[in-house]
Amino acid sequence: MLDAKIPAGPLDKKWENYKGHCKLVNPANKRSLEVIIVGTGLAGASAAASLGELGYKVKAFCFQDSARRAHSIAAQGGINAAKNYQNDGDSVYRLFYDTVKGGDYRAREANVHRLAEVSGNIIDQCVAQGVPFAREYGGLLSNRSFGGTQVQRTFYAAGQTGQQLLLGAYSALERQVALGNVKLYARHEMLDIVTIDGKARGIIARNLITGELERHFGHAVIIASGGYGNVFYLSTNAMGSNVTAAWKATRKGAYFGNPCFTQIHPTCIPVSGDHQSKLTLMSESLRNDGRIWVPRKKDDNRKPNDIPEDERDYYLERRYPAFGNLVPRDVASRAAKERCDAGYGVGSSKQAVYLDYAAAIQRYGKIEAGKRGLESPTAEQVRQLGMEVVAEKYGNLFEMYEKITGENPYQVPMRIYPAVHYTMGGLWVDYELMTSVPGLYALGEANFSDHGANRLGASALMQGLADGYFVIPYTIGNYLADEIRTKPIPTDHPAFEEAEKQVKDNIARLMGIQGTKSVDHFHKRLGKIMWDKCGMARNEQGLKQAIEEIKALRAEFWKEVRIPGAAGEFNPELEKAGRVADFLELGELMCIDALERRESCGGHFREESQTEDGEALRDDANFSYVAAWEYKGDSNYVVHKEPLVFEECKPTQRSYK
């Protein structure tokens, strides 16, 4: 049994009681304790800023040239918080309930409730930092709706919320850098965890400019390196996003939780050809006002504006009247796939549906005309006024769409299709966010923690900042209070030497292959296997085939990959090769986990387990647990199960109808 270290007592008092009884480190002792943080996105930057502010000696590592380039900037739509500014019935409990239900009852209640509790503090923190959230006319912060909820709780800064939040966290981080409390290592990639006497005590990092390997000691290590969606090659993730930090932790004994839980985002620009190396996300906030539809006739090749209203199928509104276009992402994605597979897709590929803003432009235009006292506005005036409102709310997203597709979304509906986006799986952590390796923590998307089998929109930014600003300062102190007598361990310790030797040997092995095929060649092939057989729908036969195909592909990779250049220099192909080697191992484990979980839940849809009308069918009697996989060597894993107990949110068949 895994010990999640969930505090005793009522659910709504657990976090308060924990904070009141956890161990503390006095300020003088904090100055002698060192913490390593891998990743400087929202989770890593907020953790580094918070721990530096507390007085710890922090080393923060990122492979980008600046912490500002973390993939957190790509989260456009917003951040959830239970402020109830709209007075529409929101509360901490309702945010907690929506998150557990949205995750299809595969998340740990205690962690989710803590997330909902601190959500309001996040908004206060970010406003104090100067994050330019959108505001109503009277000055109050504005909110909009996101999928899986019936209230407006999503705070936003136009269509660049993640960027603005990261700039706030980055500013706090740079303040600590200037004060000398945090040392920032840009263009460094963590390639191994160093453990001594069973505890995480440091990392081996590669300087990506010079190629040199470096040893760094820490009393504790925090992994905040994001998710692993790029295992699919085509995803909405930045091309540099990878699983290497988390996977190296797994190979050093940290369990990997629920790896098969990956999220397919319904609102992405469709694939346009084999030349593509990534996909572009159109924010879920667009579903707040846009209507999704397909033609009622199969293979209808008319232009969208030529199709009359009564010949359009607004299928989400038809199938899920209570939530309409704001159903959770997994539900919306599968519905789009079903329509396209049935022959109702649009565009040249027929693998797309329409996201239409015509009705929203009309609605906003009439409201604006009324505000301006225009009693009989012309249709063109209404349209122009409506476009101005939409541009203020979503303008940069519309501009991005037009630049990529060459189509004006103010005039014709956008074309969208689901794509790999977020990963709910990650390093298994307990209530304190510690992995199964003492002293090794995982924050944000790098852990499996708060979203179950499906993440609701605008909850990624919430979790990353909650972990960094408001959770880890307490929980890591509880651990470090017992480490104040541990002196800094010299990096010539045998454990550091052995870890560096293993990294050197692995690099030498990669460079020595000198095969005939590029790294991207293998990454694309892996991505196709994963998308076809472990993507939006999975079945037993396909998963078994995928496992064997990935094993064969991995064997071919280690014989045929070609990496130009040398190890001791700037070498992006070597960086990619190491990351793809890790993806090849992770991909196999994802398929193993998906095969083992013989139920459908959230983003994990097993074709053998569905209701009569095609909805996901959970098996709570047999699969109400977190699957935490222990690495035992090449293709050898042992699963540990953490039972999920629901005291407040009793599992029911999820319905958004």
UniProtKB/TrEMBL annotation:
InterPro entries: FAD-dep_OxRdtase_2_FAD-bd, FAD/NAD-bd_sf, Fum_R/Succ_DH_flav-like_C_sf, Fum_Rdtase/Succ_DH_flav-like_C, SdhA/FrdA/AprA, Succ_DH/Fum_Rdt_flav_su, Succ_DH/fumarate_Rdtase_cat_sf. Keywords: Cell membrane, Electron transport, FAD, Flavoprotein, Membrane, Oxidoreductase, Transport. The keyword Cell membrane applies. It comes from the Bacteria. It catalyses: a quinone + succinate = fumarate + a quinol. It is a peripheral membrane protein. GO terms for molecular function: electron transfer activity; flavin adenine dinucleotide binding; succinate dehydrogenase (quinone) activity. It is found in: Cell membrane. Belongs to the FAD-dependent oxidoreductase 2 family. FRD/SDH subfamily. This is succinate dehydrogenase. It comes from Chitinophaga japonensis (Flexibacter japonensis).
